[in-house]
Every structure is written in C-alpha cells, then in structure tokens.
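agent> Task received from the user: take the single chain below, predict its 3D structure, and emit structure tokens. No templates, no multimer pairing.
agent> Plan: (1) validate residues, (2) run structure prediction, (3) serialize to tokens, (4) report one or two observations.
agent> Step 1 OK, no nonstandard residues flagged.
tool_call: predict_structure(input=
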Amino acid sequence: MREVVIGGVGMTSFGKFLERNLKSLSEEAVASALKDARASVNDVERIFFGNAAAGVVTGQEMIRAQASLRNTGLDGKPMFNVENACASGSTALNLAWWSVASGQSETALVVGVEKLSHEDKAISFGAFAKAVDLEEPLPEGVTTGTGSLFMDLYAAKARKWMKRTGADASDFARVVVKSRRAGSLNPLAQFRKETTVDEVLSSRMVSDPLTLFMCSSIGDGGAALFICSEDYARKHDIAPVFIRASSIVSAKADGSGELVAVRAAREAYEAAGIGPEDVDVVELHDASAPAELIHYENLGLCAPGDAPKLIRSGDTDIGGRVSVNPSGGLLSRGHPVGATGVAQIVELTQQLRGRAGARQRPGAKVALAENNGGQLAGDSAVALVTILST
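)
tool_result: status=success, residues=390
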C-alpha cells in the first residue's frame, strides 16, 4: 500500500441557497480544490462523488456525478456515484484512498455535495426519514411528532445517556456555544453568530431535551478534495498532508456488539499506530449537540461518563488540548449531508497546514474525522473514521 496525500481542498459556503443547484455547488467546490492543488482537470484520473438525497429532494437519480460535473471538463473520466447516508462524502474518500493506495490511480478527486433546501420543508425532512430501515419498528420511546425523525432518535439516545452520565441540558448548550463561537470565525459556515447557554436553552423545544439550537439545520453546500500518491506530490512540489487511516464499519443487524463509531475509531487508531491521546484536532458528527458529547467517549477522548466534565473544562475548545469541531461542526458550519464528510477533511487539512486562521489549533500534527449516517438496530447504520497527519 502506498502513502496517500491530500493535495488540494475546496468548498463552498454552506447555507440555504434555494437558487443554487447541484451543478453550481459542485463546480465551485471542484474549481477551488483544483486551484488549491495547482492542478487541472487533466490531472484527475478518477472521480468519487458523494451525495445522499438528490433523488428525494431534486429528483436526480442514478447519474448524479455525471450530471453535476458535466460542465467542469471532467466529463469522459471514470466517475463513481456514492450514496451512504450522511457518510456519503467520507465513503467517497475511503474509496478514492483505496484507489490511490493500491496503485490503481495516481490521483483522484473526491466531491461531496448536497442540495437539501426546498420550498416545501416536508420534502427536506422526508429525505432524512428515508435513512432508516423502513421495515424496522422505531425504538421504544421514539415518536415522529416533531416531523424530524432523526432529532427524535437523537433525543431518545440523549435521555438515556443523561441518566447514565449525569449530564444535563446545560452541557448540551455548552456544545452549541462552543460551536457557534467557532462558526463565527469560519467565513464558510452556515451560522456565524455567537450565542449563550441561556439563549440555547430558551430556544424552541424540538424533541425533549433538544432545543432548536441543539439540532443541525437543513442546508446546501459542496466540498472537494484532490488526493494523490506521495510520489505525485513530491514531483509536483505539494506539501503533504497524509491520510494515515480510513476505516468504515456498518451496524450489526441485531444491534449486538460495540457501536459503529467505537469500532471504526479502534480500527483507524490501530492502522495509524496511534491512540486518542495523540490527536490534536477532531471534526466529529455533531448532528445534535448530545452527539458531540457521546462521541467524546466513542473516540476515546475521555473515559466513559466523563464527557460532561470534558466539555465543562474547555479542553475541546479552539486552542484546547484536543480542539473539537473548530469549523463549527454540523451544528454551525452546517450539514448538507453528502458534503459533510468531505468538509470535515477540508477543515482538518487546513488545520494541519496551519492555515485555519483564528480557528487554528496551535501545533496541530495529527487530526481525526468521524462521520456516521443512517440508523439501524439502534445504532448509526455506518461510521467512518479518517486519520490525517503531516
């Protein structure tokens, strides 16, 4: 297996852009990544295109990459359409990494893009509701009265987790305050206004204990990565950010065993030859505020039950011992689902390059991304963990 390098990154602003389509978002992200890599479309050998919900929201099925990229100059090249719920973008990266690491190709382009906003919000929420086994009964205590199935699922998990750890709603609010502060420093983030614990707690209740500010929002956006072999990077004078590990696991159908995020993290740590104590900066899947705290434990950033203590300590803030979601995460950067996993890598690459500006975690050398999606047997249906280093 060869070393694989991230040579260029690019992304659009994230937000609700009713006037934009998949083509517009894809074209901007691709052009930005190629410019960053000082590469052209002629340097791209294969394209891996992550998108989750176009079939439901826009009606575009089957040839999403070919349709979205037809005006970029990439037409005619091998394109692979990847759909894997909220982990579509990181799954596209995993496949591209394998392509380059195995020697199948010298370069690859990873694109993650999503158009979720729609004049009819029921269509947008309906797209998320399809990311479950439709024949599986909902978990005990979960209702669909809010219109947002996944927030109901997160709320049920949060209630159980609060009983186990002693966390309270103010801990979830602290996550949002941290997230909004990071988002205010990110010019591409969907939400860029800081908030307070009281404002978070007093925002509209969505699904107890989740208030509106504790829930990731519907949004649109695109992100892209140009990846290449180490030899290619050396020949083209590209300062390398290495992909040290990329693991992917799916849920067990009977709900047995460890959570997918725990398994994916362990596999990635073993492949990279490091532990959680070696990680400087993390982008994780905070689709709801409680999810960030739960993932502190899943990723080994703290001992089981210590996540409330960790968020209260400030150690996961910008510049902290392990900076978590300095981009603003899903809560503030935004969560256009097919783009999310790629956007995480864009942020971490900039962190390892030392180019994150006011969001910079000083001296960052090792970074980790955790991206999960869907729901199966009480767990996320899929999880990926990617580890990067300089």
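agent> Step 4: summary for the user.
Residues 2 and 101 are 5 Å apart (CA to CA).
agent> Done.
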